[in-house]
């Protein structure tokens, strides 16, 4: 290794792999790896189109395949199998957003509504455990206080 080179970690700890419940945090961590490698442009469709017009498609495809490998090796085996087969990094990134962001937003809204409408059931310990579970799920999804407030402020239209 030359004195000017930088060693970039391309793989997360296995506890941080995409597992279906940690998408928002995982996405930030993996994007950081891709950015540190100087390959974030491969996640943009317009970059691929520009490379096609510029005639340097072979180099663009090599970079894109490298990012696809980075993304897949930072997933659990189950999810890697589901998303294997993409040639372009931007297509894989978009498929992940389509799969997880809409689902996660709905799940987050449901969790906030659940905690906001929770009723005393005669068992304080049970309610406290459920609140702790919801808090952990929101934290694992990197949900901000602002997001929770936005959801709660829209609840005046919900009938209970």
Oligomer: single chain
Reported for the largest beta sheet, the result is: none
How much helix is in the residues? 55-70%
| Unreliable sequence segments | 1-6
- Structure summary, number of beta strands: 0
DSSP helical segment count:
7
Taken from the alpha-carbon principal axes, the silhouette is elongated
Based on secondary structure, the structural category is mainly alpha
Q: Averaged pLDDT, please?
A: 84
Task: State the separation between the terminal residues, measured CA to CA.
Answer: 64 Å
The Cα radius of gyration reads 20 Å
Portion in beta strands:
under 5%
- Topology pattern, helix = H, strand = E: HHHHHHH
Topology:
Layout: H1 23-36, H2 45-54, H3 57-72, H4 77-83, H5 89-116, H6 124-140, H7 145-153
